[in-house]
Design goal:
Layout lengths: L6 H11 L1 H14 L16 H10 L6 H15 L5 H15 L1 H4 L4 H27 L7 H28 L5
């Protein structure tokens, strides 16, 4: 006869399983902060792709497609963008990470980082094209998009380091 986990153990396990999505929500709120820089105006950094990519590669059961869709929808509501733009962008990033998971598992960090840069570039391009099509106008000023891309590129290594620490300490026994 197998022992059933207690209620406290079940709550502990549920909280541990929610860590990746909670970190994504935290980075979503951090990305909503206005990034005022000289000449670029207020911007929203799309930092949510970092935990989506990381946890999809290393703990895909904890970052599900439904969680990614919910993050995208919440992001659309909070940022005031067109409904579905961030959701589709996140889902495309998630799909790219899922499809390349076997390649990046066990690869050196620089290769995984390069994969993130490629995935976030594709996601930014899709987001740019969607907004251009819906608004029916082409924006030729790519400086804000490149700036946001660089924020994500620079933010990935420290975020990945923190996520790896969390994974080793808190998610060892989580399936």
């Amino acid at each position: 006869m197998a022992l059933r986990p207690t209620v406290g153990q079940q709550i502990d396990l549920a909280l541990r399983r929610s860590i990746p999505v909670a970190l994504a929500v935290l980075l979503l709120f951090l990305g909503i902060l206005p990034w005022n820089t000289h000449g670029l105006g207020p911007m929203n950094a799309n930092l949510v792709l970092i935990p989506i990519y990381y946890w999809t590669l290393y703990r895909p059961r904890l970052m599900t497609v439904w969680a990614v869709a919910a993050l995208g929808l919440i992001s659309d509501f909070l940022m005031g963008t067109l409904l579905g733009v961030n959701m589709l962008t996140f889902l495309i990033g998630y799909r790219v990470a899922v499809s390349q998971r076997k390649i990046f598992t066990g690869a050196p960090f620089i290769v995984v980082w390069g994969g993130f840069l490629l995935m976030s570039g594709v996601a930014a391009l899709v987001q740019f094209l969607l907004v251009t099509i819906v608004k029916e106008q082409i924006v030729f000023n790519l400086r804000p998009a490149l700036f946001l891309y660089m924020i994500g590129a620079v933010a990935y290594p420290p975020c990945a380091y923190v996520f790896a620490l969390i994974q080793r300490r808190s998610l060892v026994r989580v399936a």
